[in-house]
Structure formats: C-alpha cells, structure tokens
Design brief:
globular; 176 residues
Length: 176
C-alpha cells in the first residue's frame, strides 16, 4: 500500500512539475537571460511558504530539521560550481530532466544517464575525495542562523521576509 501511495504522489508531483515547467535552473536562466520572472517568482513563493512551514513541522517534532547537513569547506564551492555547470549542460535541474524525459526529450535521457554515471564515479572515488579535498578544507557544520549569529526562529523570519520581498520585487520590477 505504501508503494502505491508513493507512486501516486510521485505521479502527482511529476504532473505538476511538467505542467508548470518547474525547474530551478530554468528559473534562474530565464531571469538572467530573458528577464522572465514567472518561474523565479514561483521559486521565491515556494521558499517563502516552506521556510516557516518546515520550521513549524520541526517544532512539532514531525520532521528533523537538519538530517543531512554535512561539514562545509572549499569542496562545497567546487561541488557547487561542478553542479551548476552540469545543470547548464543538461538544460535543467534534476526535476526538469525527469519531466523532460516524460515529454520524450532524448537529450534529457542522456543527461540522466550522465547524472547516474557521475554519482557512481563519485561514490567509488569518495575515499580519495575525502582525503584530498574534504578533510583538508572543511570548516564544520554551519546554518544561516549560526553564520549571522541569530536564533533559528530569527533566521526563519528573516528568510521568509527575504523570499517574500524578492517575490514582490520580481513582480513589480520586471512586470511586462
């Protein structure tokens, strides 16, 4: 039964992503190249709504806040650059690649295969990457609140205001 529910939720999310052409990489690409803001505004609205929602769910002990936060360092920047280049070459983020495969784009299937190969290579080379890049440059775990010296609640309020403000600004500043 769980598998059936998971499948139904996956199909529903896939349908929404495909119908809305929702892709994080495309949102930023469209803004910087064409000054189109509809996807970027959707991303800002998504973040403005989910930031406090996630905080409330965590406060109610329904979700764990930072289950996957790892130490950061120079390798984080290098990984981000490689990831960004990969998204540009693939023509979108992972969700965009997946819904484009459903639309019949063969190049997105090639991108998915590339993602899987890259994951496998990273998995096999992780001990070396850990010794050569991660361990020598890590600075520990850090959240936005810790970086700014504020509480988690203050960081949530600040983030929500920031994302809401960007949503409103993008709607007014770049309206056609």
């Amino acid at each position: 039964m769980e598998s059936l529910v998971g499948f139904a939720i996956g199909v529903a999310i896939g349908f929404v992503l495909e119908r809305g052409q929702f892709c994080m990489a495309s949102a930023f690409r469209d803004f910087f190249l064409f000054r189109h803001t509809h996807l970027l505004r959707a991303v800002m609205l998504y973040l403005a709504l989910l930031t406090p929602a996630f905080f409330l769910l965590h406060s109610a002990e329904l979700v764990e806040t930072y289950p996957y936060v790892k130490n950061g360092g120079l390798f984080t920047v290098i990984g981000g650059v490689i990831f960004g280049i990969g998204m540009v070459l693939a023509g979108g983020c992972a969700s965009g690649t997946l819904y484009r495969i459903g639309e019949g784009y063969v190049t997105s299937l090639v991108a998915l295969i590339g993602m899987l190969v890259g994951i496998a290579i990273f998995g096999e080379s992780y001990p070396w990457v850990l010794r050569a890049l991660i361990a020598p440059t890590e600075f520990g775990k850090m959240t936005a609140g810790e970086l700014l010296g504020i509480t988690q609640l203050q960081a949530v309020v600040l983030g929500t205001l920031l994302f809401s403000g960007l949503y409103l600004l993008l709607g007014r500043r770049f309206r056609r």
